[in-house]
Amino acid sequence: MKKVITFYYKNTYWGFYLLRPVARFYQFFLHKKYLSPQAFTKQRFKKKFGYPLDLDNPKTLNEKIHFLKLYYTHPLATQIADKYAVRSFIQEKLGKDYLVPLAYTTTNPKNIIPENLPDYPCIIKTNHNSSGGIMIRDKNANHNWAQIQSTLRWNLSENFYWDGRERQYKNIAPRIVVEKLLLDKSGNTPADYKVHCFNGKVRMINVDIGRSTENHYRNWYNASWEREPYKWTSELMNDKETNPSKEDVPKPENLDKIKELSEFLSSGFPLLRVDWYINEGRLYFGELTFHHNGGFRPIVPTIWDNNLGSELKLFNIKNP
């Protein structure tokens, strides 16, 4: 019965509006909205890691991520977490040449029809969560537009803040963004370089290869492009993880530029992840993220959670 209700809620127009009150009631308990951010975070952390979260004296990187999530604020946090609003931030800081071309934006899923999409491959995503995106390589192909609209309608209705209590997402005005889909000459999506900056300096880089495929893997490198001795995976939809590959990823030719721009953008933030794509030799900005994996994924071996945590300085940020 649950699967049937979920299907009609997520995949039909009438089901969404008819079942929305029921869904809100269910999600109140699913996301434990009755708990304070601190209580929710401590409870989930204990479940994920098997030991209590120490917010009075955080030591591991994941502990410090949660400390920052709960006690660090920045006036630009909402803007730069917004995948649409961040474009104006990047244009102001770096210029428009680093932006993936924007094709269309709307707040109404019904507007996502072939007539409003570009003639070139594009990706449809929402600006306020980490739902990935819907790749449209050819808008004239046999797409289920009603299904796509239903998926977007459901995404727009969700406040991503409740997923992990990350405050920067709470006040984002949801919208749909359509951007050019970056592809190489073989039709493959480009590698995704995620640059983790500690106190404004590049500490490590993870590169994701084969996104949205069965062979999605993630390698970790230091700032000199030497392999790091740990993994910090994300969960995939097929019950797999973004494990490292045995094969090395060649050092990008524009690594120095990636590091330079990442440190420029992360200046003034204790912790910031800056994402980039390289497509046909050209560098494109991806997104800015405050808390990798929301701080809820283990670093293996665990000694590296401690090692990396010791390198991140919290300075004058205090637990009230």
Features of the shown structure:
320 residues; alpha+beta; 5-stranded antiparallel β-sheet; 4-stranded antiparallel β-sheet; 10 helices; 32% helix
Folded structure, characterized:
This protein is α+β, with helices and mostly antiparallel strands and 320 residues long. It has a domain at 83-182. Helix content is 32%, strand content 18%. The protein has 10 helices and 9 strands. It has helices spanning 2-11, 13-30, 37-49, 61-71, 77-81, 86-94, 145-157, 161-164, 255-266, 303-311, and strands spanning 102-106, 122-126, 134-136, 176-180, 192-198, 201-209, 217-222, 271-279, 282-289. The strands form 2 sheets. Strands 7-6-5-8-9 form a 5-stranded antiparallel β-sheet, with helices on one face. A 4-stranded antiparallel β-sheet has the order 1-4-2-3, with helices on one face. The protein is globular. The N and C termini lie far apart (46 Å). The model has no long low-confidence stretch (mean pLDDT 92).
From the helix content, strand content and strand pairing, which structural class follows? alpha+beta
Q: Strand tally, please?
A: 9
Give the C-alpha Rg.
20 Å
Individual helix count? 10
Q: Compute the separation of the termini in Å.
A: 46 Å
> What's the overall geometry?
globular
Poorly predicted regions are: none
User: Strands of the largest sheet, in order across it?
Assistant: 7-6-5-8-9
| Secondary-structure element order, N to C | HHHHHHEEEHHEEEEHEEH
